[in-house]
Amino acid sequence: MLVLVQFSCAKDDNYISLPQDEDPIETSPVVFDIESVPYQTLSEYNFFEGDLSNLNPVYGVLPYDLISPLFSDYAHKKRFVWMPEDVSASYVDDHSVLNFPVGTILIKNFYFDTVSPGSQTKILETRLMILKEEGWVFANYKWNEEQTEANFDLNGSFEAFSFTENNIERNVNYRIPAEAECLTCHKSSSDTSIPIGPKPQNLNKSFSYEDGTKNQLQKWIEMGYLTGSVPQNIYSVVDWSNESEPLELRVRSYLDINCAHCHSDDRHCDYRPVRFAFNESEDITNLGVCVEPHTVIDPALTYIVSPGNIQRSVIPTRLNTTEESLRMPLLGRTLIHKEGVDLIEEWINSLNTICE
In sequence order, what are the beta bridge partners of 139? Predict the structure, then answer.
């Protein structure tokens, strides 16, 4: 007996044709050739549909956010992840970057919503981290003035403009980093590069997707981007700006995302006597409390954190300056993060530890 199976003749590049009684399998239209990337323009990847500046992701380009994001001169960020078919990331532990498969692309767009004149939205750069066989590579794309394209550029540059944030008008000479600066913040042992943010402790939050709100890790599992062997209870950071959270947790979360990528073992500042990673900072000695500084920048600054005394503490001094030889973080900002400084100072003033 001859059996005929009817197939749809309608063509849609985003679907695989299946028999009519089965649901179509949606596939990602992202253009990816691991031997050819990074491309010369952002549009070549086909991450976004419609006007490029809308950053409206195609299927497979999954948005995500961090519980506490890194401060970058008040820039807003839109983050996405994409992976090839039939591969997934896997869980390592709560505080480590996920074990991503080859072909993963992490996509981070930096923009301001209130640029003068006219309170315009301005996208400045899109940073990609692409995992090849030899490791993570950087691809930075600088947006043109027309906001129609972003071009590959690892040389670094500055963009000067004014914007309003928290009802305060600010002037910034925003730094788009060069490749060497990317490596400084992202390097681990043997000068290999790793991402900073995508750890379970930072991703364990709800996100509003087009099909509803759900936990990000659960969404990654449903997308096939994460294997299902993830614990139910993850020791997570908190939103440092949420004043309903305990002050100590807010401070530890802020220092983790802004400082731990350098102040950890095998990182750029591993020689300094502090460890800011969230999983290590329950011991306040690792936060510098009653710890003498490695480098004396002022004899009056007796400890990295002098309990109850911000005038004698190194951390607020380094956070509250833009001088390149003093400021911390070393890279990634040209402005003072006033809200972050206020948080750290409030915490230091709350401490009553007696240094021996």
Answer: 128
Asked whether 310 and 163 are in contact (CB, 8 A), the reply is no
Task: Write out the residue range of the structural domain in which residue 287 sits.
Answer: 247-350
**Number of domains within the chain:** 2
Same domain (yes/no): 214, 78: yes
Residue ranges of E strands in the chain? 15-16, 25-26, 62-64, 76-82, 105-115, 120-132, 135-143, 150-152, 157-165, 168-176, 206-209, 212-215
pLDDT band at 7 (very low <50, low <70, confident <90, very high): very low
- Strand, coil or helix: what is 186? helix
Q: Which amino acid is at 58?
A: V
Check if the beta carbon of residue 30 is closer than 8 Å to that of residue 123. Answer: no
Residues 288-344: tens digit of each pLDDT = 899 988 877 778 888 989 999 999 999 999 999 888 877 787 777 899 999 999 999
Which of 173, 189, 223 delimits the end of a domain?
223
Residue 64 domain flag? yes
CA atoms within 13 A on the CB side of 23: 3
Give me the amino acid identity at 160.
A
**Whole-angstrom distance, CA of residue 62 vs CA of residue 296:** 46
pTM of the entire predicted model? 0.88
Q: Phi and psi (nearest 5°) for 315?
A: -55, -55
Q: Cβ distance 34 to 102 under 8 Å?
A: yes
Taking each helix axis as running N to C, give the angle between helix 247-259 and helix 338-350, from 0 to 180 degrees, rounded to the nearest 10.
Answer: 130
Handedness of CA 315, 319, 324, 329 (dihedral sign): positive
